[in-house]
Amino acid sequence: MTRTVRYVVFGLGATGIGLLGVFAILKIPAFGASSHPYRDASIPAAVKHATSNVISSINFDQRGLDTLGEESIFLASVLVISVILRPAGHETERRELSEGRPLDSTVLGGLVFLPIVLIIGLDVITHGHLTPGGGFQGGVILGTGIHLLYVAGTYRMFEKVRPVRPFEWTEAIAAGAFACLGISGVLVGASFLANVVPQGVFGDLFSAGTVPLLNGVVGVEVASGVVVLISKFLEQALTVRSDSGNPQGNGHTSRETKTPDGQHP
Amino acid sequence: MTAIIGVALTMVLLGGTAVVLTEKPARQAIMLSIYGVLLGILFLSLAAPDVALSQIGVGTAVVPLVVMLAVKRIETRT
Description:
The complex is a heterodimer.
Chain A: H1 3-27, H2 37-48, H3 54-62, H4 64-84, E1 91-93, H5 104-126, H6 135-145, H7 148-152, H8 155-161, H9 164-188, H10 210-238, E2 240-242
Antiparallel strand pairs in A: 1-2
Helix pairs in contact in A: 2-3, 3-4, 3-10, 4-9, 4-10, 5-6, 6-10, 9-10
Chain B: H1 3-21, H2 25-45, H3 49-77
């Protein structure tokens, strides 16, 4: 395919889609109008299953299959990152990192905010069916919040506190638990991912059936996935270095003397 | 369209332009983080708090961190 042919094909496709877009935009309702057919269908369905947070009901109850696909995508992307970001044949992990000390204010801020962020993350996960948020949002808060330990300390200390292998296990087990909760609906006689747990009273902590269970499972998976993801990137950025042609391959290059933030030792 | 939504949309417009016009990738990651907060405010003013939480969690915390770590890794190689 020559360049001109490519441009012609692109021009035809873009014109077609542009025309369709113009026709679509001319027919959409005004901003902030009062006709919402999806709302008229989904909110009564959410209230019928005693779920206060309609978004969580849509995510885990009415369109639970889409969320299963979304969590599989997350699991697959973390898996791909783990595979791609292994040290290559000519790279080694440095054993000694010459790191500086963080500022006292950073240490204070990190230690003060760490329990607050962890509690907020747990709160967002467990109250996903009542207040805005849910499993994914709370999982991201937990997964990034634990890195306040790295910000307030050194990388070697952080590595001791955060072993990566348990987080890999919990991520995989939680992803499987999502599918198992769906299969439990089939075993009881309803459809896959149906809401078969007793639903309770609207607004209680133990309401909405399977939605808080799925929220918790997704929260564990996303938190573990974020920790594994960031751990691979931190490993690459801080510890893995190329052997620049050293025949012994012991990794001692001239870059060894640089601290991770590029200042002189 | 209320005033808050108008102000939030304008800030998102300016923030997006600022992100695109930033040169170095490390600085662009920080601008992306600020842009994420502006987008979160826009989503909140449009009555979508779940989306705002997701946006702030992913677009402000995770993606700029990953970008900056990748940039650091590439820069120490060359």
